[in-house]
Design a protein that fits this description.
- This protein is an alpha/beta fold and 305 residues long.
- 38% of the residues lie in helices and 20% in strands.
- The chain has two domains: 82 residues, Chemotaxis receptor methyltransferase CheR, N-terminal domain (Chemotaxis Receptor Methyltransferase Cher, domain 1), CATH 1.10.155.10; 191 residues, 3-Layer(aba) Sandwich (Rossmann fold).
- The strands form three sheets. Strands 8-4-3-9-10-12-11 form a seven-stranded mixed sheet. It has a three-stranded antiparallel sheet with strand order 5-7-6. Strands 1-2 form a two-stranded antiparallel ribbon.
- A hairpin with a 4-residue loop joins strand 6 and strand 7.
- Helix 2 crosses helix 4.
- It is globular, with a radius of gyration of 21 Å.
Length: 305
């Protein structure tokens, strides 16, 4: 869920499209580059890997070319080489966020993979309450949604907590959502979504936890739910600044990392879990042989001893 980096690519047309095939650079009009050369693609590929841990194979060269071309137009760069030089220079720091956003699409929606949220709403919360009653824990639940994209997963979890408000009325509950993209973190903080993202939200949930904007064109999360969450920028290749989470979700993200990068991320995730904490993962992450320190509880769920 695109540290949330969900890398899905779409065609944006080539230099021969109807949108034109030339870029105005200063007072010059130069031919728009059609596609990255192998050398250029490898340079961008290695740079993306260095800053994010994401490895893209050569089959993506055309699609990556089209995405980067958007930044050439936006930034008045003459060609791919000029853009790369700028991006990797000290002056390119401000462009880095735009570059990451250009090559990534953060696509998600509320309650994606419903079984995961049903477990959280019922079994997980019940177990946390039972632990506290047995003197094995505090009246506190801490959750981390890693690579949270635009916040749908975070708010879905917060709604699950709100639905247990009577059982958790004396508890301190908090959810942190993190993503490498500062722009999607800002969007998550706003908490406004269109109908497509809300298809799995029930009518009762929509009335209770959202405010309608205009004539049903979008909805905004209500304040009591927003009070449960916090959003921050974070690169999964780096350790989090605090730990002891009772539950960590990381789903549909690590499929885009190579094996060595996955090992680094998994180490950080396990370190962030409290004893007895749960790690919820996506179905195709390719990390199951790296989770030996955890106990498998289901196809998507692992627990720290």
């Amino acid at each position: 869920m695109i540290q949330g980096l969900l890398f899905t690519f779409r065609e944006f047309g080539t230099a021969k499209s109807k949108r034109g095939s030339r870029i105005v650079s200063g007072n010059r009009t130069v031919p728009e580059p059609e596609k990255l050369s192998t050398r250029q693609f490898e340079a961008f590929r290695d740079f993306i890997y260095e800053i994010s841990g994401i490895r893209m194979d050569a089959s993506k060269i055309t699609l990556v070319s089209n995405r980067i071309r958007r930044r050439l137009r936006a930034g008045d760069f003459a060609d791919f080489d000029a853009y790369y030089r700028h991006l990797t220079s000290p002056k390119g720091t401000a462009e880095l966020e735009q570059f990451l956003d250009a090559i990534t699409t953060n696509e998600t929606h509320f309650f994606r993979t419903p079984a995961h949220f049903e477990w959280f709403r019922t079994e997980f919360i019940s177990e946390m309450i039972l632990r506290e009653r047995k003197g094995e824990g505090k009246k506190e639940i801490r959750v981390w949604s890693a690579a949270c994209s635009t916040g749908e997963e975070v708010y879905s979890l917060a709604i699950n907590l709100a639905e247990n408000n009577l059982r958790l009325r004396d508890w301190k509950c908090s959810i942190i959502g993190t993503d490498i993209s500062e722009s999607v973190v800002r969007e998550a903080r706003v908490g406004t979504y269109k109908q497509k993202a809300l298809e799995d939200v029930t009518p009762v949930q929509l009335r209770r936890y959202f405010e309608e904007n205009g004539e049903g064109e979008s909805w905004t999360i209500r304040q009591p739910v927003r009070d449960l969450v916090d959003f921050r920028g974070h690169n999964l290749m780096e350790g989090l600044f605090f730990n002891r989470f009772d539950c960590v979700f990381i789903r549909n993200v690590l499929i885009y990392f190579d094996r060595e990068s996955k090992k680094v991320v998994i180490k950080h995730l396990i370190n962030a879990l409290a004893p007895g904490g749960y790690l919820g993962v996506g179905p195709s992450e390719g990390i199951y042989d790296m989770l030996d320190p955890l106990v498998k509880r289901s196809a998507f769920l692992y627990q720290k001893a």
